[in-house]
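Milestone M4 deliverable, item 7.
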Amino acid sequence: MRNWSRLQRVCCAMILCAVVLALTGCAKQEQESTAAAPPPDSGTALQPTEPPLPAPKAEPKPAPESQKPTETTQAPDDFPLPIYEGFTVKNTLRTQTGDFKGMQVEIAGNATPETVAQFYEAEFNKRGLKVSKMTQKTDAGDEVLVLGQSDKITAGIAAAKEQDQTRVILSWSEKK
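Output delivered:
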């Protein structure tokens, strides 16, 4: 019996060695075969064998007219918020998302972001909107965000100092 268990251990050790050698040999063969694969006949390292990618197509399709910003000097007649006194309109953008139709107006002028935000906060309150306000510090100075909401209206402003002027984005969106 004692010799039998010794024989089993020797056999197990030999089988284990054979498995390890077989696996090592297989792994080595795979590495050698991939490293020694000849390059394709139809190309070189400088010339790929696949055809080149097609040239890009013509200009991308422009955005629909209702979403293009337009240069104006006045806000559109149907924009429901007044323009802060002394500020000029730079761009207007009309949007539509689902049931909501909206408009954004970019204005710029000489007043602090806080003063402009207070003006529009009062305008939102006049229209019965629930108002929330946030101020954050940036490298350029303070940025003020004011949001006004009701069941059918979402309005907001973002006012920030940029170089020597205050830039304000006014946003108004109504559910139709």
